[in-house]
Amino acid sequence: MGPDTHDTYRVAVERDLIAQHSLTVPDPGPEGTVHSHHFTVTLVLTGPELNEYGYLADIDAVHAALDDIEERYTDGLLNDLPEFDGLNPSVEHFARLIGDRVAPRFEDAPATTLTVRVHEDEAAWASHERTLD
């Protein structure tokens, strides 16, 4: 008997990194000056089926994707990176751009959805969810 269509598997891995930004919206207040955040980035993969080895996604591959994110953004100024060109470096944009960077790594996994959640402090976070091809 196959899995119930309501079954959903989830694999999640998180990583901390410190990066800087300054918001570029009108009247940003103190957030308009360059400041650091201790971000926590969480990648969550979901799907109804596992591969032949019982994996939704190889956790080592998820860690490798986060290694890339950590290398790209740690101690950097988000405003200066080409992917933020013309964008307010909000946590929402950050979550989407991380997803753009890591989603191709999971094209062959049975996972069907990738959610990237980015905490900018202990209380505030944003996420972006996409369907994987």
Topology pattern, helix = H, strand = E: EEHHEE
* Helix segment tally: 2
Task: Report the end-to-end length measured between terminal Cα atoms.
Answer: 26 Å
Quickly give the structural class. alpha+beta
Largest sheet: 4 strands, antiparallel
Fraction in helix: 10-25%
Portion of residues in beta strands equals 25-35%
Sheet with the most strands: spatial strand order: 1-2-3-4
Low-pLDDT regions? none
Question: Would you report the number of β strands?
Answer: 4
Q: Can you tell me the overall shape?
A: elongated
Q: What's the rounded overall pLDDT mean?
A: 95
Radius of gyration: 16 Å
Q: Can you walk through the features of this model?
A:
- The chain is an alpha+beta fold.
- Helices cover 20% and strands 30% of the residues.
- The protein has helices spanning 59-73, 91-102; strands at 9-21, 35-47, 113-119, 125-131.
- It has a four-stranded antiparallel beta sheet with strand order 1-2-3-4, with helices on one face.
- β3 (113-119) and β4 form a beta hairpin.
- It is elongated and about 50 Å long.
Task: List its salient traits.
alpha+beta, 133 residues, 4-stranded antiparallel β-sheet, single chain, 2 helices
Please give a quick description of this structure.
With 133 residues, this protein is α+β, with helices and mostly antiparallel strands. The protein contains 2 helices and 4 strands, in the order E-E-H-H-E-E.
